[in-house]
Amino acid sequence: MAGIPEDDPAAQGRGEEEPLLGRSGDGLQGEGKPIYYNLILGTAVVAQAGTWILAAIVWAAVFSNDLMLFSAHPLLNSAGVLLVTQAILVLQPTHTPKQKKWGTNIHAAVNITGILTLIAGLVIIEYNKISHAGDHFVSPHAILGLITYILFGIQAVVGITQYYTPTLYGSVDNAKALYKYHRVSGYVILTLSLATVCAATQTDFNKNVLHMQLWAVIVASVITLAGVLPRIQKQKLGIKG
What we know:
Elements: H1 44-63, H2 72-91, H3 97-131, H4 140-164, H5 172-176, H6 179-200, H7 204-210, H8 214-228
Helix pairs in contact: 1-2, 1-8, 2-3, 2-6, 3-4, 4-6, 6-8
């Protein structure tokens, strides 16, 4: 869950409103604008294009073949990546206390939904492997996927507890001190999840059945990151100036 907000942005000045790329104030949620507008604000339209193209590539490949139990694995995982991307996009532009509170609650709800969707995808593939006596976690895709699942789980637990139950960390200030690390790790995990989808194109099942093209998945992933990363607020990562 990238981007859990701090409670007192006023004390931090306009620096928090300066994105990683662009000018101060670019990509901020406007006063009175609905929270869902954040999903298309600024370079979010680029991210939306990338993540929806990626989902379309996966879903088209799956539905172009006979459906089976395994089909749910790529469908659920691609949907999970789509959802966690939305969770990031909806929170990034928030900058007032009210916006951040709303954004965090939506961010958490959408992220949890996305992670549960990913877990369902994991359950499907494991059941499929067990029922066919297949090898577990041997391909680069499977290994990357396992690492990503674990990191998503840790990210969710830390994100929820540091915001909603900060006393678990000793104090509210201690919990807030972790926010920037939570944000950074969120972007890293998103990138890792996209790399996992790219690695899926090199599996035997894709080469023999789905025929998703590596170049197409890479392009969609790059477009997604090209829309997400420029919206990062520098101050939220502890970058001054």
